Amino acid sequence: MTEDILIPKLKGRFINWPTPIKWPNEVFPKKDGQEYIRVEVFPAEASFSGLGTLNEKSSGFIRVTVFVPVFTGSARAGQLAGEALELLKGWNDGGLQCYAGKAYPGPQQPIWMQRNIDVKYKYNQCVEVL
């Protein structure tokens, strides 16, 4: 699956990230009052390319959700969201290409202030095997 390929690439990209990161299908010991981000991959479509090959081409978006304690203020949430967006937009890694993205507020919550970042991607496995 595309997520199985993209998550290790994303882990490498976020290696020096200043907050804890919640990755899909991994235990995350969340602590009260600790800011963190959640990284998810949402494939939109996939197809196979080439003559007689089983190489996947897919697209979708990567979502980074920033969580900061509500009384930290919107500036910190905006700062982390901006840094995540800059880290991903225009990034290429093998067959992965990330494009323009956007940041927007998440739903209002009593404990957390949330900002979401969505960055479109295309992935071509053929490029990985060249």
Tally of helical runs: 3
| Portion in helices | 10-25%
Let me know the largest β-sheet.
Answer: 6 strands, mixed
Task: Determine the mean pLDDT.
Answer: 86
Q: Tell me the CATH architecture.
A: 2-Layer Sandwich
| Helix/strand structural class | alpha+beta
How do the strands of the widest beta sheet line up side by side? 1-2-3-6-5-4
Q: Could you please say which CATH topology applies here?
A: STM4215-like
Low-pLDDT segments: none
Could you characterize the architecture of this molecule?
The protein is of the alpha+beta class and 130 residues long. It has one domain: STM4215-like (2-Layer Sandwich), CATH 3.30.2000.20. Helices cover 24% and strands 43% of the residues. It contains three helices and six strands; from the N terminus they run αβββαβββα. A six-stranded mixed sheet has the order 1-2-3-6-5-4. β5 and β6 form a beta hairpin. The longest helix is centred in the middle third of the chain and has 15 residues.
